[in-house]
Known about the structure:
Oligomer: single chain
Keywords: Repeat
Distance between the termini: 30 Å
Helix content: under 10%
Strand order of the largest sheet: 1-2-3-4-5-6
Shape: flat
InterPro entries: MORN
Number of helices: 0
Number of strands: 6
Amino acid sequence: YSDGSAYYGEWRGGRMQGRGVFLWPSGDRYEGEWRDGLESGTGTFVLADGSTYYGSWQGGQMHGKCV
Length: 67
């Protein structure tokens, strides 16, 4: 993308769908499931400082139980 971010993974209908990894220029990354272009299902979000969130996502937002 023009802002330096990148997505590697599955696409369907021109949207991120299935499993994939999104990398932000800041060094943050999300690796997990996507639905309709948004983080949905099980995934891991790792901040550039090493902090990690693992759990459920719904509609692009952290949702439910997490570790």
